[in-house]
Amino acid sequence: MPARIDGRQAHELRPITIETGYQEFAEGSCLISFGKTRVLCAASVAERQPGWLRNTQSGWVTAEYSMLPRSTSTRTQREVERGRPGGRTQEIQRLIGRSLRAAVDLDLLGPRTITVDCDVLQADGGTRTASVTGGFIALRLAAEKLALANLIPPETITTQVAAVSAGIVAGTPVLDLCYEEDSAAEVDFNVVMTGADAFVEVQGTAEGKPFDGASLDALVELARGGIAELFERQREALRAAQT
Amino acid sequence: MPARIDGRQAHELRPITIETGYQEFAEGSCLISFGKTRVLCAASVAERQPGWLRNTQSGWVTAEYSMLPRSTSTRTQREVERGRPGGRTQEIQRLIGRSLRAAVDLDLLGPRTITVDCDVLQADGGTRTASVTGGFIALRLAAEKLALANLIPPETITTQVAAVSAGIVAGTPVLDLCYEEDSAAEVDFNVVMTGADAFVEVQGTAEGKPFDGASLDALVELARGGIAELFERQREALRAAQT
Amino acid sequence: MPARIDGRQAHELRPITIETGYQEFAEGSCLISFGKTRVLCAASVAERQPGWLRNTQSGWVTAEYSMLPRSTSTRTQREVERGRPGGRTQEIQRLIGRSLRAAVDLDLLGPRTITVDCDVLQADGGTRTASVTGGFIALRLAAEKLALANLIPPETITTQVAAVSAGIVAGTPVLDLCYEEDSAAEVDFNVVMTGADAFVEVQGTAEGKPFDGASLDALVELARGGIAELFERQREALRAAQT
Amino acid sequence: MPARIDGRQAHELRPITIETGYQEFAEGSCLISFGKTRVLCAASVAERQPGWLRNTQSGWVTAEYSMLPRSTSTRTQREVERGRPGGRTQEIQRLIGRSLRAAVDLDLLGPRTITVDCDVLQADGGTRTASVTGGFIALRLAAEKLALANLIPPETITTQVAAVSAGIVAGTPVLDLCYEEDSAAEVDFNVVMTGADAFVEVQGTAEGKPFDGASLDALVELARGGIAELFERQREALRAAQT
Amino acid sequence: MPARIDGRQAHELRPITIETGYQEFAEGSCLISFGKTRVLCAASVAERQPGWLRNTQSGWVTAEYSMLPRSTSTRTQREVERGRPGGRTQEIQRLIGRSLRAAVDLDLLGPRTITVDCDVLQADGGTRTASVTGGFIALRLAAEKLALANLIPPETITTQVAAVSAGIVAGTPVLDLCYEEDSAAEVDFNVVMTGADAFVEVQGTAEGKPFDGASLDALVELARGGIAELFERQREALRAAQT
Amino acid sequence: MPARIDGRQAHELRPITIETGYQEFAEGSCLISFGKTRVLCAASVAERQPGWLRNTQSGWVTAEYSMLPRSTSTRTQREVERGRPGGRTQEIQRLIGRSLRAAVDLDLLGPRTITVDCDVLQADGGTRTASVTGGFIALRLAAEKLALANLIPPETITTQVAAVSAGIVAGTPVLDLCYEEDSAAEVDFNVVMTGADAFVEVQGTAEGKPFDGASLDALVELARGGIAELFERQREALRAAQT
Q1: Which of B156, C41, D225, F176 could join B108 via S-S bond, C-beta 3.0 to 4.6 A?
Q2: Out of C26, C79, C121, whose CB is closest to B70?
Q3: Chain centroid to CA C214: how far?
Q4: What is the value of ipTM here, to two decimals?
């Protein structure tokens, strides 16, 4: 088996670090790193519903995603300068929002909205999966604060949610691709799962040549293993935040 | 097994019709129906490359997608009135473009761009899969015209591409969901394949509750069967267009 | 007299076809053709007034107009990509709206809005006049549905409205110009009339050289004849729709 | 015959004043008044062609139109705050541009663009006709400057152009409507003519009830008389500017 | 001491003229000139508060600023064509608004908004200071009208406000720079003061080389003298308006 | 003298920390804190000039400024969602750009552009002064890299630049206001200076009541002292970065 660029095994994650409470004013926040990829996640609680939930007692969880201009190896223009979020940004923030909602009982949340902002400080591949994984921490911390204030029951957060990428690079399925691997990948998967070992999202795209059923199975299995490990990292960070 | 809303079997497609040459001025076009869903697809050839291909001899295939305001059961505001394509629109047109490019040898296409417009005249679920399936017909007809004029070799189009949706409705995996089924689905898949029985895209989303690995396998299998049938419909339409 | 490009007489319309009910979900719809020009017209009823009618019992009729990118002989960029409807589009949709309101008693319509969407599937000259003529059919069908439900009185639609173009081509006044004639015309008229043989709009523009009073009279007379014939086509289509 | 609001005869213009050279930096400019309606017109010459004239030796004349927020009796929001010129603005600036081009030999103008800005300082009806009439003065003055510098031949400006409104108020055809008359008018005409007694534009709209052929004739005749008088005012102003 | 371009002394203002009531429909208006710089200022009263004052009895004063395209020596594109006010425009309108609010007791103004529009007809340097100085006149005239109608007490306007520029040109501090001086200035100051000889704004920018504390003092002193004179001109214009 | 909210003396800065190299991909970067205010500054070098410098050998330095949505005590909407940078943002980024250019010999910089991005991670008052002070570090580090590569001479950076705020709170002039002081301040100053003890910008605004000349002098003096200390901090950080 060919060695990976950074010497990792095919099924190995990059070093994961999670620093909770990074933005002091936010109801919940963390700075998460997957190797050089660094995303600042913050959850904000607002006591209002989106329009379409009016006349219900349900709440909502939504996400926004953005990259700092110099998170990338050459400077990327700010989207505000073009007047609107690009297609990629919108696709990613829709994915993060859907993923996080899979961990929340929106009826128990009550008539409020939690917005999870994921701002990429440094981008080296996997920014969307780091955003989902770190966004869950920020969401969970904000929910704990609401629960402590008796505004929501503790069971509003029903499970964990985490995400990881997998792909086929030079014919080999590998986990958690860095930017250089991602650019060379023939197939690119992003998988989101809940703590109950169930899938929320499976998105696979052939960048170069189409893939067969066996590859699909192999990539899903790699991702499942990586996510189990991310769940462990999340639990450690949440335990540390409470002490 | 519970009967489907419109009496179909779980693995059955809706009636498929393809009318080629609907827009006379386009290099290739068709009006495709998946049941009540009707999409007008047109391929336009331009003798210029996108900026990032400058200094190469490669071409590009891109797609645009839009719904007429009254394609839907209540009127939908035009996106131009809001000043920009929404997130869903951009996500769909990126998907269509990627899917169609899987059938094209961009080096053989040469320094030109083919834009495939998919305009939904009536929307009853599955508009993105009908767009990919009909978009391929339009693209193929345009390529034939270019090949006839000796501008590109016939092998520029390397395979067929088609797409279909599948989902879990009331616990049962079903193929090619209509709008009413789609609204009630717990899990929603869109699968794009090439004529070589290989996957271009697998996108599965849990709308309500997360899904397990067995469901993933079942849905992918259903889609594979539906796409085989769509390939047959495409070949018939292309044969008819040539006579 | 020089023969016209397509062999028509100076005072002859192109073949007119009207297919009602083309968009099943709309309250009223039709696909109208003036020769190769094809416009899909749909009327949508909303139970709300525009802001400036608040505190009255009146309703409103408005129109939107758009061309599919490949309705034209070379592809036209979507207006949403430029972020706003162009000047021509706005001018045309204001004309269609004003014209259709001339056939409606807005007080009888009551506090609701009818939006008539005119989407050009194929453009070969005269798209705005086809839009007015087909838009009236869609509007009338929607009003019939409202009247059947006893929401408005049948006399809410007070008359017919139709439109046609006329122009001076190579010195000769001709009716209902196709694109090629339109491009070569020295003078370009659009006339909208009601069933009471009265004018709603007369818009004449010298494209090349200014015109004298005699030309103005001749063109208005040509248009009047064409519109009388369009009224007949409208009545046939509406009768057919009812059976 | 019922007296008009301001005591004028049916065929009478409001007091017309033209002050040339109002904006010192412009190649040509004037402040024109039709009664209380005051429009500042400026012609700017740029030594470049619009894109579609590239590879020709022709020039172009275009116009822009805007109203100061407090030109109107209650404040009107600036269009820049809404992010784009409204439909009415675009319709008017297209009309002014077409009208002025009828007075110019664009081949003789050579590869340059003249932009005529019409900014309404005070609006009391007829702002578009004052803009055409005053815009011609600004254009003519700029052309004289170019001719003096031997950049274009004097015959580049081929004729005069002026415009006036007419309408049916309380059943009577009247010339040059002020705002109050305009609001009450059943029919509203704007007519643009050249010095050769020929029409450039005839735009008639029934605001309330449709009009018959006799009304059309009467309004066109009124306008012709008013324009003849405006030509006289233009010639006086231009003579005064030269001394 | 080197003579100034237009022969003025270092501490001398350009000729100041103020014509009140220029826009008849506005609650207060004036056309103010500082030499060739001419700004049309209009105050509009609206009986509504901005959102953030809801549930209070306070009012607000805001300003908008724009330049006519041909106010400048070469034509400047309209900001509406770029879809939004530029950074400089926003900076200036924020400055004018803040400055005028320094002269108003917003609690006495009551739940209404006064918008002061400053439209530059001709720009020869100092347009923002002319806008503040003329804007105060328009505001004061509008307030007098409200006071006459017993809607606000006369002491709502608590003081005068005026502004002037100063700068270092060729090493010498000078007052009220014209465009040519401004372009050559090393340091550029704008100072706004109230009638109580107090500062509202001091904005100093080194365009070329940084300035020391002595220069700062000299420029502020020059500005103070110029503003005293502008207060006198304002009082004359207001007295004349009342007779 | 009343104690300050956080116990500081009137002339005391908050704790200043500067972490260089925070964004690995940038040519120069630092994370700077003024107390709880934290700004991430990155300098990007591009080998192209802005349009107006074409045909010269000069370069340019520009800045962009943005706040993360949850840098503030309640969430702030992203500007991209409103389609454009707000007035305050543009004003600040113009200020940062002008300030940094005061430290650069643009002719020596040569035909390139350095963009300094200042992204506020946490906002507790003084974000613009922290941006200037940290932006200089990023700029200087990028310039060192260019000088090391012999692309520019070391003397391209001609001096240091730093900025600080001062204000009058409860009648007392104080240095480097935190958010709570800033909200209560009667007068708000921002001062930018170079290492040669000279002013680049002096911006003073009366938020509540106008200020006299003595206050102006006191605030400028306070700022001068604070900036001297910031220069020391900058030098320490730059020395540490080189080892």
Answers
A1: B156
A2: C26
A3: 26
A4: 0.93
User: Residue A219 and residue A221: Cα distance in Å, rounded?
Assistant: 5
User: F166: Cβ–Cβ under 8 A, 6 or more apart, which residues?
Assistant: F173, F174, F175, F176, F177, F189, F191, F219, F220, F222, F223, F226
C40 within 8 A of C22, measured Cβ to Cβ: yes
User: For the residues of F180-239, what is the DSSP string, one character each?
Assistant: HHHHH-SEEEEEEEETTS-EEEEEEEESSS-B-HHHHHHHHHHHHHHHHHHHHHHHHHHH
Q: What is the CA radius of gyration of chain F?
A: 18
Inter-chain CB proximity F205 and E200 less than 8 Å: yes
State how far the Cα of B94 lies from the Cα of B62, in Å rounded to an integer.
Answer: 8
Place of tokens 């839907």: B72
The residue count of chain A comes to: 243
CA–CA separation, A41 vs A22, rounded Å? 9
Tokens 């050559």, residue located: E184
Contact indicator for D32, D133 with CB cutoff of 8 Å: yes
Is F46 within 8 Å of A97 (Cβ atoms)?
A: no
What is the residue-averaged pLDDT of chain F? 94
Distance CA A78, CA F39 (A): 17
Among F82, F120, F76, F78, residue whose Cα is nearest residue A64: F78
Of F110, F118, F102, residue with least CA distance to F146: F110
> Tokens 């034939």 correspond to what residue?
B144
H helices of B149-212, in order, are: 179-184
Q: Do D23 and E71 touch (CB under 8 A)?
A: yes
* Helix-strand-coil split of chain D, %, nearest 5: 35, 30, 35
| Residue B153 C-alpha from the chain's centroid | 24
Cα within 13 Å of Cα(A132), Cβ side: 31
Q: What are phi and psi of C175, to 5 degrees?
A: -100, 145
Q: D62-86 pLDDT, tens per residue?
A: 999 999 999 999 999 998 777 778 8
> What's the rounded Cα separation, in Å, for the pair E173 and E182?
12
pLDDT at F182 over 90: yes
Q: Which of C182, C217, C220 is nearest to C201 (CA)?
A: C220
Structure tokens at F85: 């940078």
| Pairwise CB contact (< 8 Å): A44 & F74 | yes
pTM above 0.90, yes or no: no
Residue A9: how many other CB atoms lie within 10 Å: 11
**Residue B90 touches partner A, C-beta closer than 8 Å:** yes
Task: Report the C-alpha gap between A85 and A75 in whole angstroms.
Answer: 17
Asked if B229 and B207 count as a contact pair (C-beta separation under 8 A), the reply is no
Chain D residues lying within 8 Å of C193, measured CB to CB: 210
The answer to whether the CB of D4 falls within 8 A of the CB of D176 is no
Angstrom distance (rounded) from CA A67 to CA F25: 13
When mean pLDDT is compared across B118-132, C63-77, E77-91, E204-218, the lowest value belongs to E77-91
Q: Using CA atoms, how far apart are residues F177 and F6, in angstroms rounded to an integer?
A: 10
Q: Which of F65, F80, F90 best tests the E interface by mutation, with the highest count of E CBs <10 A?
A: F90
Name the amino acid, one letter, at B87: G
| Nearest CB to B216; choose among A87, A196, A199 | A199
Residue B1 has pLDDT above 70, yes or no: no
Arithmetic mean of pLDDT, D171-192: 95
Maximal C-alpha separation, chain C: 58
Evaluate if residue F84 carries a pLDDT over 90.
no
What amino acid is encoded at F221 in this protein? E
> Could you tell me which residues come within 8 angstroms of residue A57 by beta carbon, excluding any fewer than 6 positions away?
A107, A110, A111
| Nearest in space to B240 (alpha carbons), one of B19, B45, B77 | B19
A24 lies within 8 A of chain F by CB: yes
Question: D52 vs D160, which has greater pLDDT?
Answer: D160
Half-sphere exposure of residue F240: CA atoms within 13 angstroms, side-chain side = 13
For residues E117 and F195, give the distance between their C-alpha atoms in angstroms, rounded to a whole number.
Answer: 41
d(CA F157, CA F145): 12
How far apart, in whole angstroms, are the C-alpha atoms of residue D98 and residue C205? 9
